[in-house]
Amino acid sequence: MKRNVQITIIGIAFNTFLFFIKLFGGILSNSLALLSDSFNSLTDIITALAIFFAVRISTKKADYDHPFGHHRAEPIAGLIVAILAAILGFEVIKNAFQGFFAPRALNINLLIFIIVIVSIVSKIYLYLLFKIEGKKSKSPALLASSIDYRNDILVSFSVLVGNLFGYIGYAIFDNIVALIIGGFIVYSGFKIGVENVDFLMGKVPGEEIIQRLKQKALTIEGVRELNDVKAHYLGNFIHAEIHIEVDKKLKTEKSHKIAKKVQNLLQKEEIVDYVFVHVDPV
User: Fold this and answer.
1) What is the pLDDT of residue 125?
2) Where in the chain is the domain with CATH 1.20.1510.10?
């Protein structure tokens, strides 16, 4: 988890740098697409800060007020990111429509292209970094950021195309690209929001995870069969309830030991936070 915090700091640094160079380039060139992309980077800064605090909070151990830990902090941050992205996306779309009725003279030069290319390269690096580390740590916050960065790559590429058209005299494409950017931001926010709402609402994990838990439980000596296996997300980790069948002639102490072995084995799974085991005598 310490590594995750370090990665979020890298994200904050990169996005702050990109915001300022895009803002400078947008003002210099009068490009609505590049200005819109700079505001997209501004939300990325806010996103990175939210992710930073969420990751730090989620690493806290369980306490009296939060007996099952602080895992919901990351999905909450993801939901905040989704709302901010949607608001910004609609604002960009509104400004793009206004641009069709109030044409702007563009001043595209080599510096503007360099800024956009630097942005694309930086976002590719952040996308790969957050995706790889997010998968390693099963972090919804980092994975949500990686999706955002992936969309940012497409957005910056669209800005590059829009500026190329503006450079050769087709300034209207700048507004068209701004519309595309706004649409991508809204779509990104919606997708991130849906995923993190699922985490907060206790969505059932995929069937492959349930099957894996069942198979592992049946490897414990003394477990004859399973009556029921339920699981749901608590933040980005899973809580499971499993009913095991054991010989009714066993002493309570022996049944308890079998249940404890099942619990310990299943809780070794990275995605599993806690397992409740119920013993059914047969």
Assistant:
1) 93
2) 2-200
d(CA 220, CA 216) in angstroms, rounded, equals 7
User: What fold characterizes domain 2-200?
Assistant: Alpha-lytic protease prodomain-like (1.20.1510)
Q: Choose among 252, 250, 244: nearest CA to 219.
A: 244
**Separation of alpha carbons 159 and 7, rounded Å:** 27
Distance (Å, whole) CA 48 – CA 102? 34
CB within 8 A of 20, min separation 6: which ones? none
Exposure on the CB side of residue 42, measured as CA atoms within 13 A:
14
Contacts by residues 16-22 (CB-CB < 8 Å, ≥ 24 positions apart): 16/45, 17/122, 18/44, 18/118, 18/119, 18/122, 18/123, 19/44, 19/45, 21/115, 21/118, 21/119, 22/115, 22/119
Mean pLDDT of the chain: 78
Q: Report pLDDT for 104.
A: 58
pTM of the shown model:
0.61
Q: Which residue has the tokens 């001043």?
A: 107
CATH class of 207-281: alpha beta
